[in-house]
Amino acid sequence: MSNDSTKFTRLPATDAERDDPERATREAVVEFWTDRFGVPAAAFADHTFWERGAGKIWLYRGEPPSPVDIEGLGMTFLRTRQEHWKPTLEAVQRFGGRATENVVHLDRAQAATFVAGDDQELDWDGDWGYLIVTHDLAGESEPVGVGLYVYGELRSQVPKGRRRDL
């Protein structure tokens, strides 16, 4: 089934099931999270993936009928129709605790800068691109958002409406 920008349509399971070569598949989405962040594929076993519009992927726990003519379904999860796929803040906060790769942990001052939406210089020995940003909360390392690391700088991807001065 091809994508319709006015309806939620389930992602095709594999390449063989899709009509549009630009459209993501369930297999590719799970592989992205597994390869990029080390999140086990089993974390998504009870979830379905849906697209509405060009490359805006939603995650839903369960099995609603397809296509679905509603405004929202589950949570926004991933943006795929751009050069680099970008996870959403909500997805990182929900699944980022299982990540083992491309996770950068910030101290208190760095985390405050990050959640305020400010960019900062950072020594990072890992891959460039989108990272899961964590900080200790209540004695546990917790995901706080998505960062973009390029040229020695961590760029906050915290949406303007979710930024906070701590």
Task: Describe what this molecule looks like in 3D.
The structure is a single chain. The chain has 3 helices and 10 strands. The chain folds into 2 domains: 89 residues; 61 residues, Roll (Archaeosine Trna-guanine Transglycosylase, Chain: A, domain 4). The radius of gyration is 16 Å and the shape is elongated. The longest helix has 12 residues. By secondary structure, the chain is an alpha+beta fold. The strands form 2 sheets. A 5-stranded antiparallel β-sheet has the order 1-2-3-4-5.
Task: Please give a handful of descriptors for the protein shown.
166 residues, alpha+beta, Archaeosine Trna-guanine Transglycosylase, Chain: A, domain 4, 5-stranded antiparallel β-sheet, 3 helices
Concise description?
The protein has helices at about 25-35, 90-95, 110-115, and strands at about 10, 45-50, 55-60, 75-80, 85, 105, 120, 130-135, 140-150, 155.
Strand content bin: 25-35%
Instruction: Determine the number of helices (DSSP H or I, runs of at least 4 residues).
Output: 3
Question: Roughly what is the average pLDDT, rounded to an integer?
Answer: 91
Report the count of strand segments: 10
Strand order of the biggest β-sheet: 1-2-3-4-5
Q: Give the uncertain stretches in residue-range form.
A: none
Order of helices and strands: EHEEEEHEHEEEE
Give a short account of the largest sheet.
Answer: 5 strands, antiparallel
Q: Which bin fits the share of residues in helices?
A: 10-25%
In oligomeric terms, what are we looking at?
single chain
